[in-house]
Amino acid sequence: MKKKKDEKKNAKYECMDGDYTIKYDIRRFPPVHSDAISTVSSIQNGLCLSGSKDKSVILFDFHIGSTVEKWKHDKEVTKTTYDPKSDTFYSCSRDTTIKQWSRNNKNPVNTYNGHFMVVTGIAVNSDGERLCSGSRDNSLRIWDTKTAQCINQNCISRNLVTHIKWAKDSHLVAQTGEDKELRIWDARTLSVTVTFPKKQHIQMWCDWSEDQNSCLTCSNGFGGNGCEATLWDLRNAKPVSEFKGHQESCCSAIFAQSSMCDRPCILTSSNDSTIKVWDYVTSECLSTMPLPASGPVTSLALFPDAR
Fold first, then answer.
1. 41: Cβ–Cβ under 8 A, 6 or more apart, which residues?
2. By CB distance 3.0 to 4.6 Å, which of 130, 153, 216, 264 could disulfide with 280?
3. Residue 89 above 90 pLDDT?
4. How crowded is residue 182: how many other Cβ atoms within 10 Å of its Cβ?
5. Beta pairing partners, 218
6. Which residue has the higher pLDDT, 294 or 95?
7. Can you tell me the distance from the alpha carbon of 192 to that of 197, in angstroms, rounded to the nearest whole number?
8. Mind listing the pLDDT tens digit for each residue in 181-224?
């Protein structure tokens, strides 16, 4: 990749063969959190849900550049997610709880109690009736979102959960953990249906491809050792390719068909303060987007219009 000289906030990248162009703009807003942001989730075009070490959950409107809602936990917020069907927001925290929020209400609609260590992953199914959560207590739980009651749980020794992703319109849940594994769960029985070979480093994040035949994970690491994203084929439970280039832990990895490029791609973020765009098929790094002075880029989310 070649970056045109003298471009800073608005940067254009061109492939060596010149067959397509990747463009991006960086827009900066005044801080709304008082400490590092742990997680972000896209709500709708222009609206973003974020959770922070400052214990707060913020709904932010990029169109007007201001906070729409602000909610609080007792400790650091680790993950957030959104149910578009009911327009409901969820967050989990080091305070061991999951909280359910609604607009124009400063108090939680429901508080989900049951985990006894930090909750590190949450995902809601497509109809909004079930919530899956995972924790450093080695357990996954399924909750009824109407009653906030746990209806099933499963515990696997040393499975310290790092992230959870529910497949769209499916009963399958992907889960990564500090035991360096990716697991696929059947949410109906909360049993493991597919396991994959262990990686060399802790798996930090997981995402589903649109056809649900593939999963994406990413590794922690240091000095370029580890720090990769991995594409997995669910049909044969094997890795397909790796995406190497980050110099510090790869914190998140997502599938994207975006306006940034004319083909299916993968986005990754890292503690090395960069976001990378990868070709889904060739594993080639198409672009590196540095975010100077930003610190670790801990989470990624695409708006529905993929812009």
1. 48, 49, 50, 80, 81, 82, 301
2. 264
3. yes
4. 25
5. 205, 229
6. 95
7. 14
8. 999 999 999 999 999 999 999 999 999 999 999 999 999 999 99
